[in-house]
Write a structure and sequence with these properties.
Elements (H helix, E strand, L loop, with lengths): L1 H36 L3 H11 L3 H7 L7 H13 L1 H10 L5 H12 L3 H9 L15
Helix pairs in contact: 2-3, 4-5, 4-6, 5-6
Keywords: Coiled coil
Length: about 140
């Protein structure tokens, strides 16, 4: 029994060691990804301090893309307002860019403006008011 218990304990420890090595490898990969993402941050922070400007302007001055809520609001709104219409737009732009999808979603939202106003009052959409030209 003692030999059997000892061999079971060894197998359990080997399994735990393998799991720990796998977790460590995953964490190293995630850390590498995070380092790559934040490589440009010091440049933007320096621009913010030197020019005393907004975050959006700092990203623009650093030639770094910045995704803001406004960039993606139509995609999110169309998905909430009319899921089937959103799926149709997604299929239509399946190989295009996110900006193309945003443009298509804005145009399709135009016919839902009255319903969107009600949904905003009910708190189902963000309380943002855009000019009607936004949906052209």
């Amino acid at each position: 029994n003692l030999v059997k218990t000892k061999s079971e304990a060894i197998k359990t420890l080997q399994t735990k060691l393998a799991d720990a090595k796998k977790t460590l490898a995953e964490l190293k990969a995630e850390l590498k990804t995070l380092r790559q993402r934040t490589a440009d941050e010091p440049q933007q922070q320096q621009i913010l301090k030197e020019n005393n400007c907004s975050m959006a302007n700092a990203f623009r001055l650093a030639d770094c893309p910045c995704s803001t809520l406004r960039d993606f609001i139509a995609i999110a709104e169309l998905r909430i307002v009319d899921e089937r219409e959103f799926e149709s737009a997604s299929r239509e732009i399946s190989v295009g860019s996110v900006k193309d999808l945003e443009t298509v979603c804005r145009r399709r939202l135009r016919r839902h403006l009255p319903a969107m106003a009600n949904m905003r009052r009910e708190g189902q959409l963000l309380p943002l008011k855009f000019d009607d030209r936004f949906y052209d």
